[in-house]
């Protein structure tokens, strides 16, 4: 097994309003903004920085990124991807594989069911048992899984990332 030289922060967007002009334009609720900020503070407390971010172009994911990044002290400009909005787990993994090689920590913010399925797909079963068990119990809004990964981004495949932590942010 290679050393875990890279990190993936996989996030389901924070709590959003039920209505909007379109589903993609739904905004975060006040609670969602607070939860996203709480996630950012938790990640900063874990010593997690961000070198690159892949964020669905939907309003609620962009707003999750903005609140999280502000609270974590990150100044990375995210890659807002329209295709990630409706992507399934395999397509999401393909998008992650395109991460620039110099990035050590990638933050990915998307939607369920894709994010939850991707988290389980990536899990190699060698990580933090409590975190993996909590993740298996559900992937609510504001959920964050921190993975370690020991290869090049292009080599990411099912069961190649190690769960280091799981957290459900509540502000």
TrEMBL record:
It holds the Pfam family His_Phos_1. Its EC number is 3.1.3.-. Keywords: Hydrolase. GO terms for molecular function: hydrolase activity. Gene3D superfamilies: Phosphoglycerate mutase-like. It comes from the Bacteria. The keyword Hydrolase applies. This is Phosphohistidine phosphatase. It comes from Nocardioides panaciterrulae.
